[in-house]
Amino acid sequence: MPKSAQMDFEHIVANARDAFAQAEDIVSLENVKARFLGKSGQLSTLLKTLSALDVAARKREGARMNAAKQQIEELLRARREELKHALMQRRLAAEAIDITLPGRGIGPGTLHPVMNSWERVENIFRSIGFDVTDGLEIETEWYNFTALNSPENHPARSMQDTFYIDACSEQGERLLLRTHTSPMQIRYVRTHRPPLRVITAGRTYRVDSDATHAPMFHQVEGLWIDERISFAELKGVYIHFLHQFFECNDIQVRFRPSYFPFTEPSAEIDMKFERGRYAGRWLEVSGAGQVHPNVLCNMGLDPERYMGFAFGSGLERLTMLRYGVEDLRLFFEGDIRFLQQFA
Ligand code: DAH
Predict the structure, then answer these.
(1) Does residue 84 sit in the same domain as residue 155?
(2) Are residues 24 and 157 in the same domain?
(3) Would you give the distance in Å from CA 234 to the centre of its chain?
(4) Integer distance in angstroms from the first to the last C-alpha of the chain?
């Protein structure tokens, strides 16, 4: 047995150790394995030379070869484990979750405070027998102004106040974003006969923007028409509404003479809380009045027979007073920190 044969096993084991160490992943490790343990690997090649030895040497070298084989298998197993472990560590690092971050849970959604007011207002009026209807956000000049008895030269009609649209209706009428919910009065009565009680709420638009005005805001419009519906019913209904809406009966209400083209007489409705952040201050909450005879005519009604009242209130305004919000723009910024306070 040449001395070099003895050297060879140690050499092969050392080579295997290096080669395994260099394999960066399981697949290359399995490829490298063939070079040492495969059918034509280094050990198998040596095995073939064993038959040339005498019995004693063959026995001795055979045993050494087995030992070398076992060593290589052990090295392979250890390296496999190492690579598996490294792979796992890399995955864990890549998919790491920072458990100190606040959870992203899907909190329950909630209505926007103005939508919440909208719903409350509808429910309150429904409970006293009012129908709820929808209006159109794009209106004709006739429904928005003319039918409501607004004079041709009324300032509300001017380009500074109103968003006109560069298009006309099929009948060639000028179109605009409704400046109030009042056109619903005309539309509703032209398709329904009195006695009728109805409210409508929705978006309205004006060229206006500061802490208490926004170019888009919400109004609720109410209308009650029958043969003998006077200012007394207006007062009763509106005061009842305020008590319900603010969940408080300690509210004073006054009807201050005012002017609207579509009502005669007309009033601003002011209210005063006895307690709380606005206590003692008169706050304007609505326009209102007896429906003007010209408007009744435009509704297709005989003003000698029918009469009634109407009112129009700002939903943002009511919401601000209910929650003590000072800047109307907060409602439109979509800041979750503001909105969550109403959840
Ligand atoms: N449309 C009016 C406005 O936007 C509010 C209003 C006043 C509506 C009196 C009415 C009313 O129905 O009777 O300022």
Answers:
(1) no
(2) no
(3) 37
(4) 90
Ligand 1 centroid, distance to 82 Cα (angstroms): 80
Run of H or E including 116: helix 113-127
Q: Are residues 267 and 169 in the same domain?
A: yes
The answer as to whether 20 is a domain residue is yes
CATH number of the structural domain spanning residue 186:
3.30.930.10
Residues 166, 37, single domain; the answer is no
pLDDT given at position 6 = 53
Number of structural domains (the chain) is 2
Smallest CA-to-CA distance from 180 within 211, 226, 223 is with 223
If the chain, 343 residues long, is cut into consecutive pieces of 10 residues, what is the mean pLDDT of each piece?
A: 59 92 92 87 83 86 89 94 94 89 80 96 98 96 95 80 91 94 98 97 92 90 97 97 96 96 97 92 96 98 98 96 92 92 87
Left, alpha or beta for 12 (phi > 0: left; psi -120 to 50: alpha)? alpha
Atom 4 of ligand 1, residue of closest alpha carbon: 180
Q: Is residue 244 part of a domain?
A: yes
Nearest CA to ligand 1 atom 5: 312
Q: Do both 11 and 134 map to the same domain? A: no
Mutate to test the pocket of ligand 1, among 311, 313, 315 (most ligand atoms within 8 A of CB): 311
What distance in angstroms lies between residue 314's CA and the mean position of ligand 1's atoms?
10
Residue 204 included in any domain: yes
Q: How far apart are CA 122 and CA 132, in angstroms?
A: 7
In a domain, 34, yes or no: yes
Same-domain check for residues 80 and 122 = no
Enumerate residues lining ligand 1, CB below 6 A: 180, 182, 221, 260, 263, 287-289, 310-312
Q: How far is the CA of 298 from the centre of ligand 1 (A)?
A: 17
Task: Give pLDDT, residue 3.
Answer: 46
Task: Name the burial class of residue 51, with classes exposed (0-12), middle (13-18) and buried (19+) by CB atoms within 10 angstroms of its CB.
Answer: exposed
For residue 223, how far is its CA from the centre of ligand 1 (angstroms)?
11
Range of the domain at 218: 113-342
Q: What is the model's pLDDT at position 113?
A: 96
The answer to whether residues 57 and 143 belong to one domain is no
- CA-nearest residue, atom 7 of ligand 1: 287
